[in-house]
Amino acid sequence: MTPVLLTLAGLLGLLVGSFLNVVIHRVPAGLSLVSPGSACPACAHPVRPYDNVPVLSWLALHGRCRDCAAPISARYPLVELATGVLFVVVAWRFGGTPYAAAGLVVAAAGVALFMIDLDHRRLPFAITGAMAIGAVLALGIDVVRHGAGPVPVALAAAATWLAVYGGIWLVTAGRGMGLGDVALAPVLGLVLGWLGWGPALVGLGAGFVVGAVVGVALIAAGSAGAKSRVPHGPFLLTGAALGMFGGGPLASAYLALVGLG
């Protein structure tokens, strides 16, 4: 992947990140993504096109509305930057392949789901469904171009993720996690399983490890109690990212450590 294409991937990620800010705000509220246009929540003045350039407009405005000087949260440019970085990493890791398209779909939808779960403790099925459709279409193109070799492992990995998350949901009667996590799990399992069992299993386990570490840290800091409910979606998505980008080497290193590699 050339520097020019990586730059284009980053720019695309910034633009997608700008749209994701709209998704994050409007989807949980049941609002249209198309209309009305973006406006300042304080004074309701429509945002001018030149004030809607990802990251740069926020910097040029010093994080304030041009019309009423109300502060604009830094999370907007951070979401754009995070999406841009993820797009660059996906493009660098997977190049110009159909799987890269699936990775970009997962990255974009994942950012939206991550933030919505933090804000509202829910993972909208509409976004998970869009992720599933986009990923399956991209992987379908991969099958046409390169054959169906990855399909059996990918389907088995999706079933494994669904069994684990669905089992936890059933055993805990929905207290351990929500149906949104259960619906998202097989989509991530399918995409990671396309890369093999290593990424799929590392991604599956990493979500629980990250969640446990963060939970212990929050309890130690006094920010949460032992019975506090913390949204699991961000950990699920973080684990999937670890599996996608480093699951293969991590799995190989573990197998070598236990003498099976």
Low-confidence stretches: none
Q: Overall pLDDT, averaged? A: 93
Number of separate strands: 0
Topology as a string of helices (H) and strands (E): HHHHHHHHH
C-alpha geometry:
globular
In oligomeric terms, what are we looking at? single chain
Could you give the distance between the termini? 30 Å
**How many distinct helices?**
9
Q: What fraction of the residues are assigned to beta strands by DSSP?
A: under 5%
The major β-sheet equals: none
Structural category: mainly alpha
Helical fraction: 55-70%
| Rg for CA atoms | 20 Å
Task: Provide a descriptive summary of the structure in words.
It is a multi-pass membrane protein. Keywords: Cell membrane, Membrane, Transmembrane, Transmembrane helix. It holds the Pfam family A24_N_bact. It is found in: Cell membrane. The chain is mainly alpha-helical. The protein is 69% helix and 0% strand. Helix 4 packs across helix 9. It starts with a helix and ends with a helix. The mean pLDDT is 93.
Which SSEs are present, and which pair or pack?
Layout: H1 3-26, H2 56-60, H3 75-94, H4 98-120, H5 125-146, H6 151-171, H7 179-193, H8 197-220, H9 233-257
Helix pairs in contact: 1-3, 1-4, 3-4, 4-5, 4-9, 5-7, 6-7, 6-8, 7-8, 7-9, 8-9
Domain Prepilin peptidase A24 N-terminal: 11-94
InterPro entries: Prepilin_IV_endopep_pep, Prepilin_pept_A24_N, Prepilin_peptidase/N-MTase
Main location: membrane
Q: Could you give a short description of this structure?
A:
This protein has nine helices and no strands. It has about 260 residues and is mainly α. Belongs to the peptidase A24 family.
